[in-house]
Amino acid sequence: MDLRFYLSLFLRRLHWFVLIVAICSAAGIMIARVMPTVYRAEARLLVESEQIPDALAASTVQTQATEQLQIIQQRILTRDILVEMSNRLNIYADRKAKGQPPLESEDIVADLRNRLIIRTSGNSAGARRGDTQATIVTVSFEAPTSQMAASVTNEIVTLILREDVSMRTGVARQTLEFFEQEVQRLDSELAQRGAAILAFKEQNLTALPDSLEFRRSKQSAMQERLVQIERVEAELLDRRERMVRLHDASADANDVVPVRDRTPEQAQLQSLRDERSRALAVLSPENPKIKLLDAQIIAIENIVATQIAGSSVGDDGQRLSAYDIQLADLDGQIAYLGEQKALVQTQIDELTTSIEATPSNEIALDVLQRDYDAVQAQYNQSVSARAKAATGDTIEALSKGQRISIIEQAIAPRDPALPNRPVIAASGVGGGLALGLGFVVLLELLTAGIRRPIDLTKGLGITPFATLPYLRSRREIVKRRVLVWGGLVLVLAAIAGLLWLIHTQYVPLDLLVEQTIRRFR
Predict the structure, then answer these.
(1) Which of these, 300, 301, 278, lies nearest to 290 by C-alpha position?
(2) How many Å apart are CA 516 and CA 511, to the nearest integer?
């Protein structure tokens, strides 16, 4: 490898190398110089688990830590909140001091979202019960001044804490209000179901399933009573029929009275009459014994007549015979038994109707009761859930549930986080060296021709005896140097003038660099 040859080639292209290195170094130094100073303030938060064991009392807010933080981040990064915070903290007051135009609200929101960083470490999948790894939240903000960075970071932390409390207490309160409304609704529905059951029972009071056995036993008793009434009625009818037959067959209807219906006086009178008839068969009517019997018969007849006179007067004032009295008594008993028979039959019919209607009433009542029991079960569950929701609401109101607390507040940093000016300047110089060397190599690769004796041998297949280099005169050397270095100075001056025009006439270079960096973030 001919190092002297390559070194000579490099020296011949040295002006291009120096030009590129100078341009890149100047650009790197300028960028490092004009880039705005950025301070980054950081605050750390901790997501604490519930302070009361779930076995004793559980919170009704079951949002996982990562999900909760994502919700909070989306809420605090809304347009209204960011614009209000920007105006309240005067985040862009430096633009007015520099004479720059104010940003639109959309640009403010986009800029603040880019400069605000919220990172979550720990349980990346969410804080699950039983996990031992804590969830740490890091909040940082970039600003031109350290005080502004700390103020905005602490304001974001305040918003996170406020939104956390508001979200958890709001969810707990909404849960409690929901179950309170549900309990009221189910209580009203339960009252309506109960009123419907009560109205149905009152409407079908005699045909309810709980009294079915009683009505069946009552129906059997009524049927037995009906049989007894019919039996007694049949006996009375038979007795009346026999009395009528005996009355029709007797010659003297006034004297014919059944033996079982006679009074003691009537029986005695009949006995005296029979004795007189037997005595007349052997004695004369003038016999003292016959006269004694006649006197006794007359006395007994007077007594019987008196008895008949006191109880044998009808409704029309006419005197009734013993036959008529007994017949009327039998008719009254038969009529009473007929009334009792009709009454018992009516009750039996009513019981039969109610017994036949009981199965359909039982089905309808079961439907109403099933609906009532379903609503009752829902009501009991809602009451239990309301009690749990009330406990959860108390837990969240006292901040005893899962919460976000501050580990370390943001303080004003002493040193800026960005830019790293030495690294940027060194990067410009290093990039210039690499680009300059690459450009020199590219030029040599693109240049064709014979430059060394070995090129003659390789290209033409001949071996030269000697080679003479091209010798420039001193004037040519001076002219070449003036052209090279003069061009280099002109290029550097043109670049500097162009940057100056951009900075003064179009947009400040620091703002341009800042916008460019922001686009590539």
Answers:
(1) 278
(2) 8
If we measure between CA atoms, which residue out of 29, 36, 32, 35 comes closest to residue 495? 29
pLDDT for res 467: 67
Is the CB of residue 82 less than 8 Å from the CB of residue 108? Answer: yes
Structure tokens at 452: 């060394």
Which band of pLDDT confidence, cut at 50, 70 and 90, is reported for residue 164? confident
Q: Which two tokens stand for residue 32?
A: 């490092």
Residue of 413, 407, 406 whose CA lies nearest to 148: 413
Query: Which residue, 403, 400, 295, 418, is CA-closest to 38?
Result: 418
H-helix segments, 204-251: 212-249
317: left (phi over 0), alpha (psi -120 to 50) or beta: left
| CB neighbour list of residue 405: distance below 8 Å, 6 or more residues apart | 45, 46, 48
Q: DSSP for 48-88?
A: E--SS-TTT---S----HHHHHHHHHHHHTSHHHHHHHHHH
- Average confidence score pLDDT of the chain: 79
Q: Tell me the pLDDT band of 256, cut-offs 50, 70 and 90.
A: very low
What number of other Cβ atoms are within 10 A of residue 46's Cβ?
15
Please, is 61 exposed, middle or buried when counting C-beta atoms within 10 Å of its C-beta (0-12, 13-18, 19+)? Answer: buried
Sign of the dihedral defined by the CA atoms of residues 485, 488, 492, 494, in that order: positive
| Domain ranges, ordered by start, for the chain | 3-32+419-519, 210-358
Most confidently modeled range among 351-360, 433-442, 448-457: 351-360
Amino acid at 76: I
Model pLDDT for residues 231-255, shown as the tens digit of each residue: 988 888 888 788 777 776 653 444 4
User: Which tokens hold the place of 122?
Assistant: 């720990």
pLDDT mean over 317-339: 74
